[in-house]
User: What shape does this take?
Amino acid sequence: MELYLIRHAEAEERSRTGRDEARALTTRGRDEFARAVRGLERLGIEFDQLLHSPLLRAMETADLLAECVVGETRVANELARDPSTELFALCTGLRVALVGHEPWMSELTAWLVTGDRSRSEVFAFKKGAIASLEGELAPGAMRLVAFWPPATLAELGRK
Amino acid sequence: MVSPQNSDDEIAPARWLEHLTNHLGVARNGEDHEGVHQLRVAAARLEVFLRLAGRRCLRDDLRWLRERASAVRDLDVLGASGVPAPLAAWLADERTVARAGLVEALESSRLRALLEGWRWVPALRRVDAVERREQIARRTTKRARRTFDASASLEAFHDVRRSLRRLRYADEWLGRDVGELKALQETLGLLNDVAVAYRLASECPHSAELSDYLGGLTRELDRRAARARIELRRRFEREP
Assistant: This one.
């Protein structure tokens, strides 16, 4: 399968309510990630399934990816906590996107690529970064195909 | 977190979110059929809220929940309408399966995540809602016109029924009068009840014994479609 791990785009420092979960994307984060999505489209990337964390900044990032989704979008609490095999069970597509948070995106990438989640610092995600993996969805069984910082995809998506 | 009150500029989802959560328990225990219906209508209204907000996330999750509830509701409605004995027995078995699917959904991590996500959906800007409501209205008019022809398919009526539902709920969120839309929706709902009855009776393994019943449904479908066409034409013929 193809797996795309995506960290949410840049979010405001503080929400209106003060709750971390309610932090929305900034205008800059939204604009840059929208360009990054156009970059994905230029690469011909589509998702059969998109899973996202229930936190607002992840939902708003997932909203921006809607054009790339040809299948179902699903909310998953498993993307707002330590990576687990329960998350793998939710991935039923052949081209799946996961939108979540640090440090869990790094841990998940390290776990899937090396089998060792403690090596997460090697795969640190900037906000809006996307890692592309291929292979069997199991610890140590996936291959890192690409790791795009947001600016690279945004540049590709520039008109 | 969601704002508890509407303001002049913003619309909060709190009322229907609360309605949804208040009916989860009733829908789960299954003693009152109304619980499943209320769960379904709350999910539909929240789905329209997201459309008005231009948000894509959580819509598929709401649709998933609504489909599980609808599977039970359709069987409840038909089962209570005095159907022939072979069909009634099959409907009862099907309902057991559909109820199990609904209970599974109501106990699932997906529902917990859906409710968690809703905690952080902000209020909707009225100005955005008004603009997107117009898009829904234009789509509804377009779909309604497809039913004006006497050869229009049941699918065409189904499409306009869904659009009308969205338009009515959009107007509800905006605090507008929905009397006319509600009446039209009811007319199309009556047509849909017969369409669902026909589909389920056709799927029944005893359908060979139901030819008289199916024949009656076919005649009723024609009658109700003609009635719906007149009302849709009256309402939408002059729309720009």
User: Anything to note?
Assistant: The first helix of chain B runs from residue 14 to 29. The interface with chain A takes residues 1, 54-61, 109-110, 112-114, 116-117, 119-122 of chain B (CB under 8 Å).
